[in-house]
Amino acid sequence: MPISISDLLRIPIIMSFDLDQKGRFVLYSSNETGILQLYLLSTKPGSRPRQVTSGKDPVMDGAVSPQGDKLVYPLDKDGNEMYHLFLLPIEGGKAEQITKNPYRTMEVNWHPNGREVTRTIATAKSCGLETCNIKTEECFMLKEPTPPLLDLHYSHDGKWIACTMAVSFKNQQVFIVNRNDPADTIVYSIKDDSKDVSPSWSPDDKKLAFVSDAKGRCQVVIQEFQGEERIFLELKEHEEAPLYGQAVWDPEGNKVYYVVSKTSRTCVHGHPIDGEKEAALPFPQGTVSYMPSPKISKDRKIMVALHSSMSSPYGIYLHKIGSESVTLLTPRDYKVDLARLVQPQSVWYESFDSRKIHGWYIPAASGKPPPLCCPICPRRTMGPSFR
Known about the structure:
mainly beta; Neuraminidase
């Protein structure tokens, strides 16, 4: 019996996720009810998710506090992309609005002490950083004005905030702000026309890892913080680190893990700072998401990643560092038999100027024509996006 379109359309997507620093649970956003809401799920295999937000307004993202007892999420109640931040206890209860004014919000993150959150905001006149104190309920502009800031990450000691700053379409820079003296800033820009993005802090806060296209393809760069030393992590031919994918560090600070793209597939690799890239971690073939990027627990014992493919819907997988396997955490409560989906075939063809182009061939099932392409994005078919 053929798979019905209605059953395909009921397969939920997963928009974003976060990992408790102790590795106990994941927080993710999914449209299982028809509207994006947040769910909590234990990292113990076989656990069932618990929905923690509800209502007619979608919740697309959330961040778990460093202590794992609260979560913060942006919510747009008017459909105009102007967000307030809401605080919710992990154990349940009523969400509390913690912001005074709504702003367009790109990123929200916690101070390591769990007593404040900062978000990147945009208004009609400027962009900047707004900080909210959880205890006193005080909200203030930490840094303004700035060019658009696309992400935000506190150093482990809470003294610095690292962002991606979009100076122009061609030039994006790593922008560092001193939390206690916002006039004190540091910029890392390899070239005037390079994109240097998605910084992450080493465990001792002495280095930054970020992605740069300064050499013609995207690579992870290890930058000495407040120093001059800089290392490009080399990749093989046809490989690159996707732009805006974030690297995560091992506990010793001598290796990073990041997504590598090759021939329309992505894998997660460990890469020693002073050595060659290691073999791919054992996530399934397909697309391991780099937006959001894989997350790793504070003790670096487990990693979780969002995966999908052209024959497998979105799922959050858990990998125990050092093991040879992964475990699917999110349940698959739907009617579609995945074994009935047609398997894509990898193909290469030659362009008009003799370049080798990679693509995927999806045979038509039972001789019927393949689905029509979406007019918004020709790479996506009508229905769920099994990338």
